Amino acid sequence: MSLGLQKKMSSERIPLLSTPVNRSNSVVFSWQEIIENYVRPCCAEFLGVALFVFIGCTSVYNTQNIVGVAIAHGLTIALLVTATGAISGGQLNPAVTLALFISREITAVKALLFVLAQVVGGITGAAICKGVLDDVAYRSIQGGAQDLGKGTTIGEGVLCEVMLTALLVTVILLTAVDPETKSTLAPLAIGFTVVVDILAGGTLTGASMNPARSFGPAVVSNAWNNHWIYWVGPGVGALWAVFIYRLILASPEKRFLRLYSSN
């Protein structure tokens, strides 16, 4: 993700998926290009999500209240976006990666690699949480896995995740991506968004907004009840946010109508 935080590539570095190096009439990609444009960013996404899921899951046990959980998630994501932004853009969320791909901010290849790194990172973070907590503590929070709250229907849960994710992605696009509105305070804005989203929807769905955050604990604790909601809701929310952004909120050169009129 650019997230507006990614450092500009030097003019000497081979651009992403651009002209490959030609040696002895064979076409190969530079190792430096592969490491800098793929390996290093994927490692940042993996590590960032692993830490985020670990902190998120353990905070559920240690704080025992929604305010503490919200603050733990929000502060952690703000710190990790700041730390990884210049390497991978600090996406740390498959829904955010989807939004940036649809917005033409990253390539399909990098998007797929990032999602894979994020999912594996989520599993790793959840596994570390299981290793840290004793069996009683771990089972008391279902390994940090998320499910619908008491009395919340499937339709309400999906809509809740759509709305929460739409807010998060909108804030990311406007504070970290769009050239006219992006701000150096983007990590803080994103962290605050996570906090208010959890305060609003935590008791309804767990306020995932992030399929990797939900998938890791589900795998490790084998808790799959209503799990599909945590992929469909954030995915639809991300698409909705991108549509509104590209329709009217984006700077002129990024709007749909501007693109159509120029063809």
UniProtKB/TrEMBL annotation:
The UniProt record lists the keyword DNA repair: no
Keywords for this protein: Membrane, Transmembrane, Transmembrane helix, Transport
CDD domains noted in UniProt: MIP (cd00333)
Listed Pfam families: MIP
GO cellular component, one term: plasma membrane
Membrane-spanning residues: 67-90, 111-133, 153-176, 188-208, 228-248
Topology class, membrane: Multi-pass membrane protein
Main subcellular localisation: membrane
Annotated compartments: Membrane
GO terms, molecular function: water channel activity
Protein family per UniProt: Belongs to the MIP/aquaporin (TC 1.A.8) family.
Protein name per the record: Aquaporin
